[in-house]
Amino acid sequence: MPKRTLRRVMTATAAAVGTLALGLTDATAHTAPTLDYVALGDSYSAGSGVLPVDPTNLLCLRSTANYPHVIAASTGARLKDVTCGAAETAHFTQAQYPGVAPQVDALGAGTDLVTLTIGGNDNGTFINAITACGTAGVLSGGKGSPCKDKHGTSFDDEIEANTYPALKAALRAVRAEAPGARVAALGYPWITPAAADPSCFAKLPLAAGDVPYLRGIQAHLNAVVERAAAETGAAYVDFSEVSDGHDACRATGTRWIEPLLFGHSLVPVHPNALGERRMAEHTMSVLGLD
């Protein structure tokens, strides 16, 4: 090969290599950094009842298919999951069980993203309301509103007086430990339909008048979660619209929440695998992570 031709080939090759290197450098510069993601919260975040169960902490009945794991798999985030079934707001700063550290201990200055559901177990709101109304529904044969007649505003009063300030304190504790993180407080997807469904009584034995009563209690709980989030600089992920029509009365494959009776989950009245996936998808959409 003549020297002049060889020089041209070498020059062209060097230029091509330089262009390729520049392209790789540019692509690397535009690659988003990996998110350090910490998942906090109660059984709705833990995915309690959804298989497979995380074997690292059986006390918390945490699923490896919960919405935090779905988000992490979709975004490539580094996930630290300390969600725990039955957690209350107090367990953000206090140990829930021996050997289970306060949840905010998982946070740090390098935390980029935090998600959580919390508040439903404070005052025993969910379990007490569902148990009381389910029992009253069975005894009344599904007629009237025996649970509302007996308990009136007591559940709402506890939510306002106790859960709301506890939520603010918990979210402030999160912010103190992870000052640079984006914090998202999720609402709870609907458990009951807006109105009584006679065909659902065998699965969710609530008296006709207590179906909207329970839904109203849940709406109030979600409202104080939203309020506390706004007052502490956290984002709120609202499920009131997207989960409508996916309550525990719906058929398998449509419902996100398993019913009290004759469901397919180890833990009734909690999200199933579909519900956890949909919670992840909507959270990612709201936060712009999809």
From TrEMBL:
Under InterPro entries, the record lists: SEST-like (IPR037460), SGNH_hydro (IPR013830), SGNH_hydro_sf (IPR036514)
Record keyword Hydrolase present: yes
Which residue ranges does the record assign to the SGNH hydrolase-type esterase domain? 39-277
Signal sequence interval, chain numbering = 1-31
Q: What class of enzyme is it?
A: hydrolase
Q: Which residues form a coiled coil?
A: none
Record keywords, A-Z = Hydrolase, Signal
Q: Which GO terms describe its molecular function?
A: hydrolase activity
Write down the EC number.
3.1.-.-
Protein name (Swiss-Prot/TrEMBL):
SGNH/GDSL hydrolase family protein
Q: Which organism is it from?
A: Streptomyces lienomycini
Q: What is the lineage of its organism?
A: Bacteria, Bacillati, Actinomycetota, Actinomycetes, Kitasatosporales
